[in-house]
Amino acid sequence: MSPARITRLLVIRHGETLWNREGRIQGHIDIPLSPLGRLQAERLADALRDETIDAVYSSDLQRAQQTAAGLALGRPLEVQASAALRERHFGAFEGLTWEEIHARDADSAARWKRREPDFRVGGGESLVELQARCIGELTRIAQQHPGGQIAVVAHGGVLDCFYRAAVGLPLAASRSWVLGNASINRLLFADGQFSLIGWNDDRHLAGLADLAGADDVLAAPPRRT
Questions:
Q1: Which secondary structure element, helix H or strand E, spans residue 140, and what is its range?
Q2: Catalytic residue positions, numbered
């Protein structure tokens, strides 16, 4: 296949938030990056500094946009925000920890944990609806940039759908892959299909795990890049 027909995709989960650290469900709630998340985003931008990036897309939630901003900095690009790249809407589960969800509604918690594709928490989305939304948007983006390399910053549930689409796994299959904050994941898009090139490259984040929770150390203004 001609390289001019292939779109390369850098698909990236946003940096850490305080709610990530607490194990609290974010969904559509607009939570900013933590101090560690901001440093992860800076490391990510540095790691991709010398790569050609033709466009930067992001979920319109601020944790994703804050992560994406460094990828556009120093390039003649603006982050293109899309609500279609948002995390799954978890309805009544949003703002709660897993323990709180289980205590309030053990049956719904069990159905969620089983990954029932059509299960929807009150006011939220099913996995089927999430997949249709975010895969449709990633396909649209990829089709607009044949032969280019595009960065897409989104959320854990969205990247889970991207991975499944690339390797052909059903929604109900148990997850066995890592969805690390600010790690680099690489896909190709050609002939209407996604394929997996590399996943969870986090070498640029070496040493940061030791700083988790040390917000007094991390709270210094971010370095300009």
A1: helix 127-144
A2: 14, 87
Q: Please tell me the distance from the alpha carbon of residue 91 to that of residue 59, in angstroms, as a whole number.
A: 18
Instruction: Name the residue among 75, 76, 56, 77 with its Cα closest to residue 67.
Output: 56
* Contact assessment for residue 115 and residue 123, using Cβ atoms and an 8 Å cutoff: no
The span from the CA of 66 to the CA of 85, in Å, is 14
Residues linked to residue 83 through DSSP beta bridges, in sequence order: none
Q: What is the DSSP code (8-state) at residue 147?
A: T
Whether residue 85 contacts residue 134, with contact meaning beta carbons closer than 8 Å, is answered with yes
How much is the pTM?
0.92
Number of Cα atoms under 13 Å in the Cβ half of residue 160: 19
Query: How does pLDDT run across 41-78, given as a tens digit for each residue?
Result: 999 999 999 999 999 999 999 999 999 999 999 999 99
Distance CA 145, CA 33 (A): 29
For 23, 27, 206, the CA distances from 99, given in Å and listed in that order, are 9, 17, 30
Residue 182: what pLDDT?
Answer: 98
Instruction: Name the residue with higher pLDDT: 25 or 225.
Output: 25
Enter the tokens of residue 195: 């394929």
| Cα–Cα distance, 81 to 132 (Å, whole number) | 18
Residue type, 96: L
User: Is the sign of the CA dihedral 210, 215, 219, 220 positive or negative?
Assistant: negative
